[in-house]
Design a protein that fits this description.
By secondary structure, the protein is of the alpha/beta class. It is about 35% helix and about 15% strand.
Length: about 290
């Protein structure tokens, strides 16, 4: 399996620092944002330190990584033309940055219809994707499965299929499957993930899953809240999440942890849990005492 986590990208090292952080966790893949996910401030591509990052990746046999688009992109917003235009413009630039960094997967939250209804939101998402996707595009936009909080679109596979159906160059689309989001949207990830995949296959072949966000959940199934928990400490549980990593169809699919920072070993500050979680998933044993 390809197992990693979200990593940062900042300072002088930029992407090189991202790779170093991933390696410090024992990861062989990673996911990053091209800047803060809450705003549009971005450095020029020439400042991202990409060649040095690629050298370190090559030296450590890291061949795949994923980029995540910022949360502020909302293609589903039909209420504010300014918000929609910002989403299209910035998404186009994120595609350029993703390609320049050497990834072929850009994860995107489909968007929220902000009260205008599912049909209006999906139509707007389709319109936006048709504006940014071209036959020459080397990057796949991976639509993330969502928890269903508020007016989010993407909490049902049928919604994602409708987006695929409307996008002209839908060969450029993929799916990012988030286990916490699936649970909170009502899918039985804990007891029947194989059944979840069978539901998915009613709309898509499994090879459309370009990335998996492996997260436990603080919430009961169907809560529609989207609150991530550390692996094995939530309502999904270690066994089910470990099982996801063992599915043969995902052997070459980046599996990314987005679990919360927590106090570890009596630390005064909350620390990244990814090294411990990756180790537990690799050895097949849940050991909560590692966090004491």
């Amino acid at each position: 399996m390809l197992l990693g986590s979200h990593v940062g990208m900042s300072g002088k090292e930029m992407m090189l620092g991202s790779v170093k952080e991933a390696l410090s966790y024992g990861a062989d893949t990673f996911m990053l944002y091209t800047g803060a996910p809450q705003n549009t401030r971005r450095k020029e591509i020439s400042e991202l330190n990409i060649p040095a990052a690629h050298e370190l990746m090559k030296a450590n046999a890291i061949t795949k990584f994923v980029v995540h688009a910022p949360y502020i992109i909302n293609l589903a917003n039909t209420v504010s033309p300014e918000t929609y235009e910002l989403a299209v413009t910035f998404l186009r630039k994120e595609i350029e940055r993703t390609e320049a960094m050497g990834s072929d997967t850009l994860v995107l939250h489909p968007g929220s219809h902000v009260g205008e209804g599912e049909d209006a939101g999906i139509a707007s998402i389709v319109k936006g994707l048709n504006e940014v996707l071209t036959p020459e595009c080397k990057v796949h936009i991976a639509l993330e499965t969502m928890a269903g909080k508020g007016s989010e679109i993407g909490c049902r596979f049928e919604q994602l299929a409708r987006i695929y159906d409307g996008v002209k160059w839908n060969s450029k689309l993929r799916i990012c499957m988030d286990t916490c989001h699936l649970n909170d949207a009502g899918f039985d990830v804990k007891n029947d993930f194989e059944g979840v995949l069978r539901q998915f296959e009613k709309y898509f072949p499994l090879n459309q899953i370009a990335c998996i966000h492996l997260n436990d959940s603080k919430n009961d199934q169907g809560a529609a809240k989207d609150r991530h928990e550390n692996i094995g400490f939530g309502t999904i549980g270690y066994d089910a999440l470990y099982g996801v990593t063992q599915i043969s169809e995902f052997a070459d699919t980046p599996i990314i942890l987005e679990t919360p920072y927590r106090e570890i070993g009596g630390s005064a500050d909350k620390l990244a849990p990814y090294k411990l979680e990756i180790a537990m998933l690799r050895n097949g044993t849940f050991n909560p005492k590692l966090f004491d």
